[in-house]
Amino acid sequence: MLMNALEPQNIEDRVRLILSREISQKQMEALKNNGLKIPDEETAIRWRDEFTRINNLEFLSVSVKNPILDIFSPDQPTFVVRAIIRDPSNHVTTRYFWLSWAGIDREISKIAWYFSI
User: Fold this and answer.
1) How far apart are alpha carbons 60 and 85 in whole angstroms?
2) Count of CB atoms within 10 A of residue 39's CB?
3) Would you list the DSSP string of 48-105?
4) Which helix (H) or strand (E) holds 25?
5) Long-range pairs for 3-10 at CB < 8 Å and ≥24 separation?
6) Please, is 25 exposed, middle or buried when counting C-beta atoms within 10 Å of its C-beta (0-12, 13-18, 19+)?
7) Which pTM was predicted?
C-alpha cells in the first residue's frame, strides 16, 4: 500500500537530492576550513563536475520497504530504499536511504534494510 506512494522516478530524484546535499555540505565545510566564502574557479569547476556525476547516476535497481519501527516520524509514511547505482565510471554500489514524508531523507546503514518489511 505505502510502497505504491513512491514512484521510481520520485525515489531516484530524492536519492539524488540526498547525495547532492551531502556533497554541498562537504563543499561548504571545505570553504569554511580554508577561510573562504566562495571557491576559486578550479574548485568551482570540480564541484560542478561532482554534481554532474550525481545527476548522471544510473539506477540499476530500486527496492522499497517499510521500517518495522519508525522512531523519527511515526505519524508519516516512511520508506527504506535500497538503490543499486552505477556511476559514470561504471562503478556499481549498493546504498541505503531513509525517505520520509516528514522531510527527513538521508542515507542510512544497511542494517535498516534488514529491520524493514
Assistant:
1) 6
2) 17
3) HHHHHHHHT-EEEEEEEE-BSS-SS-TTS-EEEEEEEEE-TT--EEEEEEEEETTS--
4) helix 8-33
5) 3/64, 3/65, 3/66, 3/79, 5/77, 6/64, 6/79, 6/99, 8/59, 8/62
6) exposed
7) 0.80
C-alpha cell at 78: 516512511
pLDDT of 81 > 50? The answer is yes
Q: How many residues comprise the chain?
A: 117
- Decide: 53 and 45 in contact? Cβ < 8 Å: no
The cell numbers describing 68, all together, are 518495522
Q: How confident is the model at residue 117 (pLDDT cuts 50, 70, 90)?
A: low
For residue 53, what pLDDT is reported?
94
Which residues, including other chains, have CB under 8 Å from residue 84's CB and lie 6 or more apart?
59, 60, 61, 62, 92, 93, 94
Write out the H or E segment, with its range, that includes residue 15.
helix 8-33
pLDDT tens-digit map of 39-49: 889 889 999 99
Q: C-alpha 24: how far from its chain's center?
A: 12
pLDDT value of residue 69: 64
